[in-house]
Amino acid sequence: MTIPKPIELLKTRLGTIHDVNSAAAVLRWDQETKMPSGGAKGRAEQLATLARLAHQMFVSADTQQLLAAAEEVAGSLDPDSDEAGLVRMTRRDFDIASKLPAEFVAERARARSLSTEAWREARPHNDFAGYRPWLERMVDYTRRTADYLGYTEHPYDALLDLYEPHMKTREVDALFARLREVTVPLVNAIVERGPVVDAGFLALEYDRDGQRTFGLMVAEAFGYDFTRGRLDESPHPFASGFNTGDVRITTRYFPNFLPAAIFGIFHEAGHAMYEQGVSPALERTPLARGASLGVHESQSRMWENLVGRSRPFWEHFFPKLQEQFPKQLGRIDVDTFYKAVNSVQPSPIRVEADEVTYNLHIMLRFELEKQLLEGKLAAEDLPEAWNGCSKPRCGRIPV
Q1: 392 pLDDT above the threshold of 50
Q2: Pairing of strands 239-243, 246-251
Q3: Do the beta carbons of residue 109 and residue 47 sit within 8 Å?
Q4: Strand order in 231-233's β-sheet?
Q5: 219, 253, 310, 314 from 222: Cα distances, Å
Q6: What pLDDT, in 10s, does the model give residues 311-363?
Q7: Which domains can be identified in the chain, with CATH numbers?
Q8: Predicted structure pTM score
Q9: Positions of E strands within the chain
Q10: List 83, 268, 304, 352, catalytic entry
Q11: Which of 75, 161, 253, 325 is the most exposed place for a label (fewest CB within 10 A)?
Q12: Separation CA 390–CA 398 (nearest Å)
């Protein structure tokens, strides 16, 4: 199919904007993985500049004219075609971005970068008081973003729409209410029953290189293409894609808790494979990103849990893990290991939560975020709110 000239011109414009955003994404990845702490201020300015430039280019009169011309010809195309989808997606993105002032976008990017560095410094010391001013600032930016975008029911709607298009807060409330109704009794029953296996061997000492070697082997077996990706270390695991030929993942290693790193790798590899699977024909366009955050997360948790915690998976890979750690796992049988990595126990860390309690972390965060946006909860009161609602006796969401 020959692409109509107006759409081709729009794609060229979008490609340039994508390149600027990708350059910013590389800088964010570097900040999380390699950048010395002394580079924080300069990096914040770089990211603010790139955010402003990309935003101004996208909401400019030139882009608007190209989009209008593309819309004129898109009506004659198959609505399911990539070209028609590109025009629709660009219109949606343009209408959203046009509501945000360029200087606000730059200020927000600068504050986000600086707050990330502040979090990195505060986290090892559990220094919430030191980080709180930055959290308050980011909550303020988030509220202002919702106000700029507009909403009719709840400020969370404006933000939710950016990640899960057209989803409403009330729909998430209803979904979570039903999940909570069945999940909380299940968790409580499992906890009351007690552990089915002694999982203490997972807390023995496991060297970082061995964890990395095993994680790399499994990710590659899953289908993660290391000629188009890499594994690095960061304080919080994440996946970051700059184009379909460069989608990177990170994890974090704990010498005395084996599951954290390896399941983190499984999870992030799922995200990365989703993006590596995007058609090259969609490169440098809005269609090259995931359909939604929910779809993206479904892929990561499929590989982490449905595959990575399954018995057939460990029947195959456990002997290889034993070879990597013979002293720690040589006397452990596969059935014991399988039960250990599938044990259910409420915990305070979402990314290390088991398959049953993980969703309760999401529900709790959702409730707290709504209250922060509404002004019903101040950032300074967040630790107390978290600690109160993360206990089994909390009436709303025991986790």
Answers
A1: no
A2: antiparallel
A3: yes
A4: 231-233, 246-251, 239-243
A5: 5, 20, 14, 13
A6: 999 999 999 999 999 999 999 999 999 999 999 999 888 988 999 999 999 99
A7: 5-150 (no CATH), 170-389 (1.10.1370.30)
A8: 0.94
A9: 231-233, 239-243, 246-251
A10: 268
A11: 75
A12: 5
